[in-house]
Design a protein that fits this description.
This protein has 667 residues and is α+β, with helices and mostly antiparallel strands. Helix content is 24%, strand content 43%. A hairpin with a 3-residue loop joins strand 28 (515-525) and strand 29 (529-538).
Length: 667
Amino acid sequence: MFHSPPPSKPAVLRRAGAILLAALAVGSSRPAAAETADDIVRSWLETLRATGLTVETGAITYQPGADTVEVRDLKVTTRSIGALPALVQRTPSVFFAGLAKSPDGVISAKSIVIAASAGQSEDGRISIAIGGLDAADVVMPKSPDVSYDPNRPFSAQLIYLRALLGARASTARIGRFDIAMTPKEGQSVSVSYDGLTLVGLADGKIERVTSGAGRITSTLRDPKAGAPVDFDIRIGSAQISGYDFGAYLHIVDDAAYVNGRGDGVWRQLQASASAEGISVSAGPAEFSIAKAEIGSFELRQFDTPISGILDQIMVDPKYFEKDPASAMKFGLGYLGAFRIKSYSLEGWNIKAQELDRFRMGRLAFKDFSGAGLGEFSLEGLDAAGKGNIIRVGRFSFGDLVFPSRAAFEEAFLAATTGGQVDPQSVIPTLGFIKLDNVEVSPARKDRIALGSYALDLAGYVKAIPTSVRMTLKNLSVPASYVEDRKGREALLAFGYDRIDLSGEIDARWDEASTDLTLNTARLSMAGAGSLFATLALGNLPRAVFEDPKAAQQYLVGLLLKSVSFGYTDDSLADRGLKFAAVKMKQSPDVLRNQALAGLQFVLAEVRDPERNRRMVDAVTAFVRNPKSLTISSKLTAALPIVQIIGTAQARPQSLPDLLMLDAEANQ
């Protein structure tokens, strides 16, 4: 047995809209010739009755000279459907001018005017009021001859949508629209809009819809606490441009699928939509948005028709719980059937009990679809609560690519049948992350700041990038955050009450040469110095990235082609020497000479006299006047990594000679 759900706000709005459509946009289904405007109106009223509506009228006044008809005291009563009660809509006057009917029964009018209209459900829980409506150059499609099938509620809507493709109006305006509902005792919902205007309805497309101030209020009772919670949503104005409900119909109508297959063609549902002056309050919490805007919204057909599934969902809301495979397939189909060019929220403010303030200049994303996301960004975040403060100039990430639908389906099948699932096959790949001008001040602690951070990833093999570039600028952390007491004390003794770090990494793998090159690796600390390194490895095959778990087996063939590392001083050497001198009660010059005395012993294994001399001279120059020191390999042929590891374990002092290291100082 079919059980109708309790009336919902969208359902009531649809019923209210159905009454208006019935009153304004339903033509007679029987042919007529040379009918007067009076005949057209009377046949129209009979058509309404034939659809199951109860229609009563007062006087019907026809003025042939003016080509006008006025229907007085129109009363339209719908039938109750399940838990949704019957609605009674009363309209004192419906005024038609320039009525005509084509041979096939389509009605047109130069204008239709309704001064006001009010309705109420028979149980008194729903009321509807329309503060005047006028429409110009109207073409009203014929009413489809159908009966309601409770097992196909969604498909039934499609029949009326098809009929509406023939509707036309140059303009249609509603002065005000109000609806109020009390679905249960202690609960209420009301919706109101001022100045709703439609421009250019033709061929299933609407050029523009604009609205003045709108408001939605509701009171809901908390089932746990029993206390009512008030919701208040307000919109200053709104606009939709380039809406095409024919495109929507093409997606959901089974008849639009050729041979039962989707055509894959993108169709624009709407060109743009925006709303300004949005505010929402829910109990003690409030938030406001200066402007919300969405760009081009496009749809395309699913692989196969979907109205049958939507019928099932409406009849049985737990339909997907019984069939997870169908739920997964439908969800993936939905993700692949839409794309949004852009979406943004500007001037976002939130007030809540736990927040002193929350402000955001802009939140946006662009190029979002089932294939991926072009960019997500937020700007101008300033939040504070319980003594904690966070500020973000800008945060963004993007070039996000989702795994293919086939990969998800394969993983789902493997997971449900006990097969092996490759996690990399269902991990999205990310192109970049950027963060600028960040400040974090935890309660009763010093401020942490970040100038900027950028991470660029490319050249993916499955879910692993083979090109990585990272830059970090001015990550400033107070020394008080160092948990190790001795380390913290050492920083302060060196004169560093804050640690200000910057860094850079640039690494790339080339599939053709199988070389992995670390072009740059640098870490700097303001007022201290910077460490840097470069590295080139050879014979690193693609299989390492395809199966990281088996990477160790390729270590045998891995080659070192070049390596260099070094240090550029920014007063750290001088600070360290002075600190050591105080601790050891020696002069800085004595400590320098002691360090140089053992240098020849350390480099004794560098057997090439010329290289030995250059390294001794370079290190000596750096110790006496620390500016920069670079040590690099002068390999004439690539070395196996296993040989380097073996030497490091058995005879580490011979590594400089094995790697053919050389040095330069203060360049």
